[in-house]
User: Fold these one by one.
Assistant:
Number 1:
Amino acid sequence: MAVYYCGVIYMAMMHPGQAALENDVMDWVLKNPDAKTIPAHLEGKLERINRYNELAHADKKDFLIRQDPYERERIKDEILETHEDNTQRAQMEQDLAVYIDQVATSQLKYELYDIAERLNNCRHTGAAGIKPDGNPVIAWDTKCGLSKLCPDESREVTQRLTEFYLPELVDFKKENISHRIYYSVFTIPNIQPGELRAGKKEIIERFKSWSEKIPSLKGSLIIQEDPLSAAGDWNVHLNIFLCVKGSFDYKTARAQWGYDVEFNELKGEPQDIRDALLEAIKYSAEIAPTKTESKADQDKTKAPAMTQWPHELFVEWWNANKRFRRVRNYGCLYNIHKKRWNSAGYDSRKKFIKIANETATKQEQIISGGTAWNSWQEITSDHKTRLRRAMTHGEPFDISLVQWVGAVNFDSDGVYSVGSVLGDKFFNTTATRSTSFDFYNDFRGGG
């Protein structure tokens, strides 16, 4: 996968996949003459092509133009460098989309076709701009929202949850000299195929029972994971942050759990806690192989990448993780949203409501007069859901502060460009085009 950032508008461009898509649509229509709509996977491709053509014919008056050639080159280089670093994640998404499509076919799991298409359409086109701090930003047209599968979405959710829980953990540590925070991984014997959902529930219930036997435990944050092991069974475990007041006996804690477990006390510095959170929240299942086949053959104990899982086991994993909360909090870390609302002043509550309204879906009504809610208990269930989302996600970036300078489009189907408004001839020269082809071919393995 490659990214191309262009410096001139092409007025008569056509997406290289457009002719192929038209053929696919025609074939499908001929085979389904009574259908009134086209299937989702064709509609998704059509939307991408329409967006491509829209960007390619963009009018300069729709953008703020940066005339400084040096500034244009800096933005171009930073975007290219950023996405060159992220090409592995992007390729993993494409590989996983192909794999899931195969699973859908072999296992007759038709809902997975839509999942594969969402992965396939994730973060291909967007508007490129410059933030007030001078750094480039891309506003993506489409994100898949599949944080348990997509490396980009997982990375975004991990950062968001880290910033959400970090203040609570830091405050707990500073609140009392006897307060300490431990990070640990709790395991149970691997779960056999066919029993994953039961194993996930078992480890959660086991932890809740264990917590009741540790009097010094004041709160906890748990992140449940279940990658497939090299032996072909499920490695169900918990990444856990423990908020402890007073003494904490390792030997007793291990004995109560029933299996050996290591406890690592974290320093109270925010960066130390943030680093631990980032490591714990990210999903541990490797999406695609990162080793060559020869190295993988030498390491027989390495857990298989998701794209190497037997199809029936992926379906089991998918079903077991549907509507299952893998991040949970207890004790002093429970119901953080309630605590923040009840302790917030008028301005803070007004901000929470503003975010909830700005991020509302078409089906959700605008929240009005909510600042009068003196306690969390007064808020309706629907509004609580929206306010939780607002508090967790935080305030969306104000795109009105961005100077939009062009558009980016990158795809694994071929090498092509998208019009921009920078006014230079960056992508119109033979040398630059040749360089782009070389970069693309190097990443794809030649050809």
Number 2:
Amino acid sequence: MIERGIVRVVMLMLLGAFLLGAYLLENIGIQYVSEGGSLLLKIHMYSYLGIVLFTLLAVRIGLFRLLQGLGELKTLWWFGMMALLAVIFYGFMRFGTSGLAYLIDTLFIPLLIVPIVCLLSVTSKERLLTLVAYLLFINSCLAIFEFVLGQHMVMVEFASFSHFRSTAFLAHPLNNALITASLAPLLMSCTRIPVVLYLSVVTLALFAFGGRAALGIFLIGNVLIVLPKLVGFFNGVLSFDRKKITYFQVLFFFSFISLAFVLLLTPIGDRIFNKLYLDGSAEARLDVYVLLEQLSAYEWFFGAGYDLLSNIAFYIGINTVENYLIGWVLNFGLLGGVGLLIAAYCVPFALIKGQPLSSKIVLMNFFLISVTNNALTVKTSSLLLLFVVLLCSYRPKYIAMVQS
């Protein structure tokens, strides 16, 4: 009975994280990312649900028993949580409450949900994986429809974009591209939708989002997944049913032709194909390193001064630091940046140890794509979804089988 309730609340969190994007909340009058408004509205609904669920479970079954379910993740979880809380405290002492709400939605809640998901059975975890997989597919379909119609589902202005870029449910195109390209390699086999069809739709969606780095890393990741299976097949190590191979070949052929037709004969590939060079957007990602040259020895460790933080545009031409690692160093110093890096990745790295290659590709994609923009210095559900997907696909028995 308790597990059923937990699953329902976690599903509600995932639905909220997917469907209630920043732009939608702003359009219905909730000042979630804009300046002003109530401090309570700066934190997303899924964060409140996660905090309430964790508190109720701690009261109902006891905090010790709740955290005991972490198993071998317990030490790393505490390490990541303590590092994050230390940075939040330092940030509060330095900036007050200004600009710290994103740490709750982006980093705190993903860590808080780890012991909750660890309590669930394999069947419940598979249900969560299926839900996220279908949500990702629906989001990709919506992105394609938005691009075809040339209109966003939610009102939004992108004055700096030279090409139309879909926003779908997950707000900013780069946030969409990060989540889609990172999670799809593992989720594409978690639905009843043919893998080739799922892959084709996701690839088209990445073109609609206009994420060049995400698309390239996504394609490389899929090649790395398929390559060992192809080598094993041709070497006779792996065997497949002939009917399935024939079915796959036919589906792959028609999907490839359809995908090529859409990309070459429609505008959906313009953003990628017309900008295969170092444009202003790419230069902005390289210029951010100039900011590090302005730091004194003290600022390297404890964060940049107010003068530098308020004049970023003077050095790189834009107000956004298109690299969250550098953004962390500028705001919290090297010590705080390392703390946030530990909070973000210590648990995911433990979750891919001894797991199938697809899990490793998911984390590789996420890290490589995310460092090309300010993904984790803004409010995003990307880490929450990453944690849930890796937790639900984590199988300790698989580790034992590999080791034996």
Number 3:
Amino acid sequence: MSKVISNDAEIQSCVSNHSLVEIWVSREFDAHCRLVEYNDQVVRTSDGFYYLRTNIKMRLTSFSI
């Protein structure tokens, strides 16, 4: 099972390392993407999408593009 990303330090690590993550919204898979920035309310992906942090789960993935 992949690691759930749950705090600012883990998100910052993903941003710094250009890690590929899975975004899950309401238990439904939404995207494989890289995180480029974040704040207390949202994360932004390399595709330009914004997600409310309270509405998603993020997981590190072993899938690579």
